[in-house]
Amino acid sequence: MKYTAIVDYGVGNLKSVSNAMTYVGQQTLVTGDAGELERASAVILPGVGAFPDAADKLRETNLDKVLTSQAGRKPILGICLGMQLLFDRGEEGRDCKGLGLIRGRVVRIQTDFKLPHIGWNSLSLHNSSPLFRGLDDGAYVYFVHSFCGNADCEEDVIARTQYGPSVVAAVSHNGVYGCQFHPEKSGEVGLQILKNFGELIQ
Question: What average pLDDT does the segment 13-19 reach?
Fold first, then answer.
């Protein structure tokens, strides 16, 4: 049976992600079990909270090793904090190691606007990606964050948004995808993104 594993490591917005995937016709399993993640056809890493706490939880459960071992073997999608954890390191609270699946660092957004950045912003799409198939440049999605990824390689950036400066909104590298915004809270646009991700399953 093909299914998408939604990683349960104590800091995720699990139910809404699972419900959204079910709505677009994808079988899901919310789990923190390494074997289930290895057997899954795809993996979603959600996340709410602070980078160091979430990174510590992944390491304590050895799920960091499972995720890095599965990268390149199956589609992986990080959402919000889950996307940030894909990067090499984060600077929230203290310098902290991430999963190293996207080269770069997670830093505080340098803006004169209020943080956290909460609300709907438009996407500027870059470097054509199957994640955004069927979507128009300028589509609106929902953000909640104060930190953002700075990718070392611009080719890994597939969407940006403006919040004062240009902010990385989505990344992709070797079958690993990340959305800084919440597709499960982004209406029809977000559902299309999750449907597109589900269709990456072989």
Answer: 92
